[in-house]
Amino acid sequence: MRAGVFDSGVGGLTVLKSLVDHNLFDEIIYFGDTARVPYGPKDKNTIIRYSLEALEFFKNFDIDILITACNSVSAYAIQEMQEVAPFPVVGVIEPGVMAVTKRIDPDSLILIIGTNATINSKRYQKMLQKHGYNNLIAKPTPLFVPLVEEEIFSGEILEATMRHYFGDLKPDAVILGCTHFPLIQDAIKSYFHHKTTLIHSGEAIVEHLEQRGLAKPSTTTPTLKFFASENPEKLKKIAQKWLKS
Ligand code: DGL
User: Fold this and answer.
1) Is 178 a catalytic residue?
2) H helices within 114-192, ranges in order?
3) pTM beyond 0.85
4) Is the terminal CB of the chain with fewer CB neighbours within 10 Å at N or C?
5) Partners of 173 in the beta sheet?
6) Whether the CB of 40 sits within 6 Å of ligand 1
7) Which domains does the chain have, with CATH numbers?
8) 70, 77, 100, 162: which one is catalytic?
9) What is the tens place of the pLDDT at every residue in 175-191?
């Protein structure tokens, strides 16, 4: 099977890594819209427009499925993409919510973090409420995105940013509702003293694809092809580093 992975930039490599680690496809075409990242501060119409343009790009490949690694795209544009795509389009929000329902008790306090687009769309909140989760705190935490892009995965600046956003919150679970956040999951976990369950979009989507029969593990590591709307060489270099870690 051949899959497409779409992200606003390099962040979706965290989702790609989960797919690769589980050998889920024979070939994966990754496209990052690096010329127009970040999507998180943009409005719904802009995110839909950019996502539909990316969809056109993927029509050049004979893909069996398109995965939108980007939470901001999954929050605002998934339906519009599904309506016109000639292949199934799967976002990361529903898989994230399903991962919660399997692991977390409905009375638990759940903290949802993501970009402004993801949090303001209320997609996670509404879906979780439908499943009986009402003890929710949803917080945009956009400063984590540039920190991760600067490869600040620990240390003082990250600690101060976590203090700024989290204060003395004590959630039972945190939904890492942004492609970048798995790269600082160790720091987030230790901020909450290791008791908190973290929900990671990449791991959630692997579970979702396997359960729905949308992907089968292959016997070999998938072949990867990288494309970017700006500086594809930089994306490839980051991919080499992040996919190894
Ligand atoms: N990929 C985005 C997301 O998961 C984060 C970066 C951006 O704002 O474009 O929401």
Assistant:
1) yes
2) 116-121, 123-130, 144-149, 156-166, 185-191
3) yes
4) C
5) 110, 197
6) yes
7) 2-91+203-244 (3.40.50.1860), 93-200 (3.40.50.1860)
8) 70
9) 999 999 999 999 999 99
